TrEMBL record:
Gene3D superfamilies: Cytochrome c-like domain. Transmembrane segments: none annotated. One of its GO terms (molecular function) is electron transfer activity. Residues 124-186 form the DUF1587 domain. It comes from the Bacteria. It holds the Pfam family Cytochrome_CBB3. The keyword Cell inner membrane does not apply. The keyword Translocase does not apply. Keywords: Heme, Iron, Metal-binding, Signal. Residues 30-103 form the Cytochrome c domain. This is DUF1587 domain-containing protein.
């Protein structure tokens, strides 16, 4: 009996405390957050003052994705505690966090529903990409650094489309590079002279077959189409 009375008293206390807890909850709807912005943010960021070139009083908080860049900036300010600024009236921390969370969730949901990865403008290959493409297409190793001009760097990357532009001088370099690659890949007419080349040692860029012990490894590009004779000699 005593146990039942204690459970009933605990349940009554919990039910009685629920409305008070609800009153303290931070706003999590568009209308509530719109009122929060109107009270604490729009006093400066409005159409008349346009502080920091922002007019938040005319933005639709029901669809933050329509002004995603502005709200992304606002989120950073809210999460960093920079807005409202020092000295200005500030809402409770819970309300600020709830506003930031509402904006983040709304923007993420809109991005997931309508993904927009953007587009890549037409651009040329950089030197590394060019060398890789020639190797894949013609099975030849190309020293792109010797054939093509230095690539411009943007934000530490050399494959940004915005800087991989094509100018008349670049086009001339690519035509010269194409000739060099074609000559290496196809070869030149045989002149009738024997072609001899002596290879010694090990080329560290050419791995030996699995299980091999010693030997010679090297790369050789045949300059002409034809039959080649390989001879190997060894010293005792």
């Amino acid at each position: 009996m005593m146990r039942n009375l204690l459970l009933a008293a605990w349940a009554a206390a919990a039910l009685g405390a629920a409305p008070q807890h609800a009153d303290k909850q931070a706003p999590d709807t568009a209308d509530a957050n719109q009122a929060l912005i109107k009270r604490y943010c729009a006093t400066c960021h409005n159409q008349k003052l346009r502080t920091a070139k922002l007019a938040l009083d005319v933005l639709d908080l029901t669809h933050p994705e329509k002004n995603a860049l502005i709200w992304e900036r606002a989120i950073r300010k809210l999460r960093g505690g920079m807005m409202p600024p020092p000295g200005a009236p500030r809402p409770p921390v819970e309300a600020v966090n709830a506003l930031a969370a509402y904006l983040e969730a709304s923007l993420d949901r809109a991005a997931a529903t309508n993904p927009n990865p953007g587009s890549v403008r037409i651009h040329r290959l950089n030197r590394a990409e060019y060398a890789n493409a020639m190797r894949d297409l013609f099975s030849v190793e190309v020293d792109a650094a010797a054939l093509l001009p230095t690539d411009d760097i943007s934000d530490g990357f050399d494959n940004i489309a915005g800087v991989l532009k094509v100018s008349p001088s670049f086009l001339d370099q690519y035509i010269m590079a194409a000739r060099a690659v074609a000559k290496q890949a196809i070869g030149t007419p045989f002149t009738g002279k024997d072609v001899k080349r002596t290879l010694r040692g090990i080329d560290p860029t050419v791995p030996l077959p699995p299980g091999a012990r010693g030997g010679i490894s090297a790369k050789y590009v045949a300059p002409y189409e034809g039959d080649y004779e390989l001879r190997a000699t060894a010293n005792p």
